[in-house]
Amino acid sequence: MSFDRSIKIAPSILAADFANFGAECEAIEAQGADWVHVDVMDGHFVPNITFGPATCAAIRPHIKGVMDVHLMIAPVDSYIDAFAQAGADVITAHVEAGPHIHRTLQAIRGAGAKAGVALNPGTPAEAVSELIDSVDLICVMTVNPGFGGQKFIDMSAKIRKLRAMIGERPVHIEIDGGVDPSTAPIVATAGADVLVAGSAVFRGGSVQDPTPYGANIRAIRQAAEGTYV
Question: Catalytic residue among 42, 68, 89, 176, which?
């Protein structure tokens, strides 16, 4: 993974056809997705259960670019190696998920993946102030994690604080929750560069007819870049 601050669209397969994950991953990349986002939920840290390392390993051959794995689980550390071995390029853990987030981030990098840290809506930017040099990505949740399709919560002030804290360091700011063409400009203007979108990407399309995926991705990208009409 090379670093740049251009807008990147990372469709969440939580909104894809569960029976066709491989084909869905191929379709969204063919239609312009930059990353593929995998939301891992355990029914404990968040009130939903989704995927595990086996799913990541199964879809990895169908993904040419970045597989971005968001662990909404607790505990985290005992699963890091499994997700790294499954092919995750980025592994993100929540600062709220355990008492030793610095150790977790070290373990992620030690496993060969880029290290991300996620912040729930109620967690301030200052919670990661001592972690900036230990991360490659900070994920700002703009919904309460656990389910797709929720209403966007404006975290612009937090994003701006994080952008200032990061300075010139090569750290991405990712937004997860309620991203669509109406909210993308809000977060991009505040300083985000990786936009996770689920239903806003997959709405109206299918593996058989993926062209709506491309239109949806372009609309979000253009809105974030200020060129959407």
Answer: 176
